[in-house]
User: What shape does this take?
Amino acid sequence: MSRWWTEAVAALGDAVPLPLAALLLLAGALLVALAWYFFPAWVPRRLPRVGRPRLPRLRLPRLRLPRLRLPRLRLPRLRRPKLRRRPARPDAPALPVPAPRAPEPAPAAHAGLADRLAAEGRYAEAVRERLREMVRLLVARQLVEPRPGLTVTELTAAVARVRPGVRPTLHAAGAIFSDLWYAQRPATAAHDHRMRDLAADLSRELAAEGERR
Assistant: This one.
């Protein structure tokens, strides 16, 4: 290390005189001291900006693709399958009552029609005619207003508010009618006999309550 430094100083002394070297070192130290003292006043605030070279824009030719027209596919219309309505349960709350026919026949004629249907084995239709006779009797006594769409539940509730004693009879008649016409159960002669007895009971109960009043 010392030999290298000695040789470097000797080579510098041969090229530059020693007094001149000392003067140059002193001037360099003075310049460094002044720069340190006046820093950063001598540093320019804004440095020159180096502009980026602008590249020419390349314009590519527009390619127009031909339009492809696809053929329209017509799908066949699908028809919804007709759903069969399930028969209503006997305890369904809304069961329309068969309205009396117009003109309304007399009670004897109505009963005779039900008897003829029962004699022909058409027990379901006979039960319906007997229920119509019961509705006709209630309308004649002004216990219920004749209106379309009246249900068995509404009929029983309307009559029970005025004549509570006939409620069990109407309820039993409505249950038989619902079993045959909504639950689609096979009708038998027992249903017709039971419906005929209920119609007779309704007539007696209404007559007995009328006499009490």
